[in-house]
Amino acid sequence: MAPLDDAGPLPAPLRGLPARALAARYAEVRLASEALVAHLSPEDLAAQSMPDASPSKWHLAHTTWFFETFLLGPQLADYAVFDPRYGYLFNSYYEALGARQPRPQRGLLTRPGLDEVLAYRAHVDAGMARLLAGDCDEITALVELGLAHEEQHQELILMDILHLFAQSPLKPAYQRPAPHPVTDEPGPLDWIGFTGGLVEIGQAGDGFGFDNEGPRHKVWLEPFSLADRLVTNGEWLAFMDDGGYRRPDLWLSEGWARVQAEGWASPLYWEEAEDGWRAMTLQGQVPIAPECPVAHISYFEADAFATWAGARLPTEAEWELAAQALPVRGHFADRRRFTAHPADPAGSGLRQMFGDLWEWTRSAYGPYPGFRPAEGAVGEYNGKFMSGQMVLRGGCCATPPGHTRASYRNFFHPEQRWMFSGLRLARDADPKVAMVPRAASAFATDVLAGLSRPHKQLSAKYFYDAEGSRLFEDICDLPEYYPTRTETALLRAKAGEMARAIPGGAALVEFGSGASTKTRILLDAAPQLSVYAPIDISPDALAGAVEALRRDYPDLEIAPLVDDFTTALDLPPAARNRPVVGFFPGSTIGNFRPDEATAFLTSARKLLGEGAAFLVGIDLIKAPEILIAAYDDAQGVTAAFNMNLLTRMNRELDATFDLAAFRHLAVWNPDEGRIEMHLESQADQTVRVAGRTFRFAAGERLHTENCHKFTLAGFEALARPAGWRIETVWQWPDPAFAMVLLHA
Question: pLDDT per residue over 183-197, tens digit each?
Fold first, then answer.
């Protein structure tokens, strides 16, 4: 048996690809499964090491049966089933589809042989090629599920092979051993605090997700802290040396019974040798690396260690809250080195959240509020397992790349440990830990992610704390800053026409309202409005504006919403069940990249509801010298606005930015059609932010804002895919600016 060489990355799962790309994506996933076992012997492919595992040959056939049963049979009238007996052999657990080979006895299936299984795959692949050559819009979701299902089995194949090979005294290697990675020590474990509160978890957006990831719902969390990294082998050895497997006081009752019954004294695959502990891996048996995270532990073991460490396991809601703003990156299967790696150096915030190892949580696997299984046999996909299992999060080194996300829920029985599982500690609020408020936690995670990029970048939405909002109002009065002046003139000239598009009793919902200064022009022209709902991320700015509005418009109900307007999910109650008109002035939409603008317009349409109207201000392209002056004024107010972002990070994230060591920079990017704002480092320097260290080279830029400028045709191209059509355009000639009325 020859070891497997690196063969390049495995394909990532679908993320809403158009139907015409499904055939190519289907072929990629199918070939990836076969590549995983191409070098194995027939005996390897047919063997089964325990009742929970399955032969690799069975995995290949079962994923093929899924496509044949759920897609080809129902969709192709002339499709000929390859072998009717395979329905019994390769059905896994779909009770509605009839009897099946018992899982513990799958290893008895010496027939069909590998050649017949591959012929079965080729037969089904040919049928899928015919199916996907036609109009497949109606089956895209089911094809996505089938491909994601096959990718899950790619991970299971690796898990089962490792368990199989671990039973052999020869300790064979699935792939050639990699040299021991040269890395920094992970450093002492640190704690990241969160205030919790009312949070939302579950899948959001239109991308692919399994049925058990939704619906998105609210959960109340008490203040808590998460360990910044996974528990290491070295720390686990200390647990063992302190009698961890011999102390019943550390274990749950069922866990201690399992320890006694099965003689557990170490994680699965560990063996003590003359030269110390060794572990079986897909690279064969190797010495334990103290700095690497401990792997192949059960929920019972993870819970016992947490008790020993004076901590606990996180809930899945705590884990998801901490992870949902982090980039999904880690040591996934595209590395083709199926082993967990040491953590990044200390001081870099939450580490190892994705990839490396699945992380046990203390949450029992059950349905979210409002969960409903799909109709038919495919509805048995996940829902039927919602009993007696525990949730794991984060993906592992054997997970296909792109296959996981913050909302992904894996689940296993608490005694199982042949999967790539580890643990991260959690604990309740500790006054010694600096807690990150919920709003600030999103700020912190976004900042840390942005500063970690090769080209450092932050979101412009974080400009608007109280001081930033005040400075922006000053910017609006500058002679160089034409957008506010021009848009205000346009509103004053055309507000009456715009007001005629607003139905009686309607709610006006403003995105990023700030001081609501320009909004007053529209409010004065539209007395038929019943509700004004300003949405702003800054509670201070919103509170001041609402107080003044309630004083000046006593007959208008003001229903403020403190939220990030790009992700708000619900209107204030007063704005529901009535006609709704959105308002987004200031050409703030120019702060988004084109794909982000379309995504925002899509989410805004969902928030406002069917039949809503949307007034959006857009700045039109003009001479670069006019544009640059507007974002780099002679008085330096725009520079102060930009620099205030550093002040905010110093105040809220314990950062150490020296404002004198940075300068404001505004440039016109003609290729992207946008003004860019940057903060440029004036020297080589090191900055601490939220416990992490970042280096800035002299001349290195921190990209803080994009201000895209539009043509009407270009804006229409962004709005149309989001479900909006342009109904009316009001345009100011010089400097060119427009207000467009969109209808859903």
Answer: 557 878 888 888 888
